[in-house]
Amino acid sequence: MIALTDVSKTYRTLITRREVRALTGLSLTLDRGEVVGIAGPNGAGKSTLISLILGFLSPTDGQIRVDGRAPRAYVESTGVGYLPELVTLPPRWGVREALVRRAVLGGHGARARAVGLEMAERLGLTEHLRKQVRQLSKGNLQRLGLAQALLDDSDLLILDEPTHGLDPLWTQRFRDLVVSLRRPDRLIVVASHNLDELERIADRVVILHLGRLQHIQVPGGGEASRVWRLVLAPGSVLAAGTFEGAEPVEGRAGSFRVTMELEAANAELATLLATGARVVSFGPETGGLEAAFRTAVGAPS
Amino acid sequence: MKGPVLWYARWQLRDHLMASGRIVGLAALVIGILLWRLRVNSPEAVQGAAAAMTGFLGSLSWPLIILATSGMISTDRVDGYNRALFSAPVSPMWYYLQRWLLGGLVVGTLPLMLAVALQLSLGTWVDPWPFTAVHVLLYLLLGGLVFCWSAFGRRDWAIALSLYLVEGALHSAQMNAFPLPDIFYQVNRLLPPFHLVDFGVVTNPGVVLPAGTQWVHFIGYGLGLMGIGLLLLRFRPMGSGARG
Predict the structure, then answer these.
(1) DSSP secondary structure letter of residue A132
(2) Which residues of B touch A89 (CB under 8 A)?
(3) Interface predicted TM-score of the whole assembly (ipTM), two decimals
(4) What is the pTM assigned to this prediction?
(5) Burial state string for A166-192 with b = 16 or more CB within 10 A and e = fewer than 16
(6) Which string of b and e fits A127-144 if b means at least 16 CB within 10 Å?
(7) Is the CB of residue A58 less than 8 Å away from at least one CB of chain B?
(8) Is B145 helix (H, G, I), strand (E, B) or coil?
């Protein structure tokens, strides 16, 4: 759906013409049906990349195509569900007004009000509908931005730091929301500093550093995972013949890292439970993205 | 103009009414009350209704136009409102053209509102339409200048105001044969021809409108400024930086 070919973006200061390279030689293809994470330290080029995909900026070199069209042409004909990193709306606008206005621009016409109210309910904003934007807390403002992004049911969703300012409850709800938003004809792009979040929701994570693509990590979560973490209750042990090859996790008694397919893992688990062992938890091993991130940006572990 | 933008006209009109519309209403109200007090104290003031219209419009027209159009595009860009607006299937060019046109509609009611205020306070009806013509033409040129600069960058109102004042001063100097170097008058010929429209002076009420080929110069200049602004919106990216 999105194809970037050797894309570079350089900013120049107005007076001195000093150059700041935000992106260099980025080639990348993002497909429908995917949830793609974009990670990187501050100044890595994440927001520039998003601005380029939306056509808010033009690349200095290279080409970007969204569904075969120039980004701006795509956005102006189809629309994109976009949550900016900083949700900025005129402070005097009401919450209801902000939703209805965006729904009108999204092409909902006479249904704009109903669509806006429906989304307000979905994002838990009903009780804030009469408030002005300036009266909203950071988290509620973020939810309003998210509601605006979801109004059009777009095929392309771009969410920049979506859980920024959200409380833990809404952070979890956001993850559930992303799962519910997945569909074969939709591409969801999530830029975040929160690697744990990306690891949970993304199919692929693009790691940028100093404006360059450093690494594309496929997180090990979900059914596609082959690396698992098994935690046994104190006093329980791995019976002989179960989870062969399990590696004890250093410093965590009763905790093991096992590598196998999901079906085999389930069978092993059933055998283990039959021996009387008590299992505290069994789930996908996390932390792979963090390690990949550290390697990609050259940070010490 | 595309459907969503047309649907959005209601909201843009509301924005204009809440801003410049309020000022138009307030100005007409205050002027009406002052003139009514004047009529009570000195009945001969009734004779000066047309002069009052000329005087008030000469003082209110251009500041109101600058106020109504200033930051029309640049504020959205600087404050980041453009990011939510133009992720929708909307062309910035049509969006801001419609906003500018609706601004003209609201601002254009000033002469009519003043005429109503004069009628209510002095009991004399002054035909507002010649004044409206001058006011709307000034909106095309001065409002078009602000629009053009607003599409380009910030400080649109300051640049437009400076050009408006410089053109007025140079034209006045030329009319009074003030001995300025010729280069000043050459430069003045390139500036927007604001002097071609005027509300007249209090001692000699009556509007000044372009004549003959001056119409082409005036309208062409105004439309040219709008055209440049629209082309900038069409081809210049809306963002000024990664987050802006």
Answers:
(1) B
(2) 81, 84
(3) 0.86
(4) 0.85
(5) beeebbebbeebbeebeeeebbbbbbb
(6) ebbebbbeebeebbbbbb
(7) yes
(8) helix
